[in-house]
Amino acid sequence: MNKLSVIFDRSRMPLYLQLASVMRQRIEAGRWQNGDKISTIEELEAEFGVAKITISKAIEILREEKMLDSRQGLGTFVSYVPKERHWLNIANDLDGLISSIKDNRVEIVHIEEKVASPPLGEGEGVPAHRYALLRSVQYNGDEPFSVVNLHLSQEIFARERKQFTRLPALPRIMEMKDISISHAYQTVTIGIANPEVADLLKIGLGEPTADCRIVLLDDRNVAIYVADFHYHRNCFALRRDLMNRS
């Protein structure tokens, strides 16, 4: 059995979606460059150990994404120029986080007031009485790169509804003189796109995302800001100088 077939069998994801992901990665990494003719279906069949129909389905997905272009009698060609990757470096501190988001273009796609607390982990404080839930999409130019589900203390939200529905909430909170932040916790994990995130980021269902959870506690240990950021995998990087001891 082809070794790749064994690897494919480990996943419950449909085979053609797995194959499309492998081919997409080759294009995005520049292994297959814009204008290149890719391997024939027969060559891909031999390489991956899958049926022709599986390869055809994978190619069709990438055609719909405008990454491949099939030309009758000539073959299939790459029609994608890689975009800048990994331009967003995760912040090292609260000031860095604020700086990274304060000028972002934000589109609010859902608001719900007076909702219950989101689940809080150990050390993430005690919940506010009620929260406003704001779901937004952040853009780099015209491209969405992050979906944010923010639970913001209802009391704080009610003070400046207009601001919080137009601009990133965190910078404004930090400008409020009567709010004192005692802790700002950041947790970074790898996730996958659920239907909502996939739709808003314009990516495939189940594609990897970089997930960043930010929890701000005030001086009463109340979680006034609980945000779950879901970043497009291609924009995100974690860079550190491991010799920097400051």
Automatic annotation (TrEMBL):
Keywords: DNA-binding, Transcription, Transcription regulation
Residue ranges of coiled coil: none
Pfam short name (any one): GntR
Biological process according to GO: negative regulation of DNA-templated transcription
Ranges annotated as spanning the membrane: none
UniProt cross-references to InterPro entries, sorted A to Z: Bact_HTH_transcr_reg (IPR050679), Chorismate_lyase_/UTRA_dom_sf (IPR028978), Tscrpt_reg_HTH_GntR (IPR000524), UTRA (IPR011663), WH-like_DNA-bd_sf (IPR036388), WH_DNA-bd_sf (IPR036390)
Limits of the HTH gntR-type domain: 13-81
Gene3D superfamilies hit by this protein: Chorismate lyase-like, Winged helix-like DNA-binding domain superfamily/Winged helix DNA-binding domain
A GO MF term: DNA binding
CDD domains found in the cross-reference section: WHTH_GntR
PANTHER family in the record: MANNOSYL-D-GLYCERATE TRANSPORT/METABOLISM SYSTEM REPRESSOR MNGR-RELATED (PTHR44846), MANNOSYL-D-GLYCERATE TRANSPORT_METABOLISM SYSTEM REPRESSOR MNGR-RELATED (PTHR44846:SF1)
Protein name (Swiss-Prot/TrEMBL): HTH gntR-type domain-containing protein
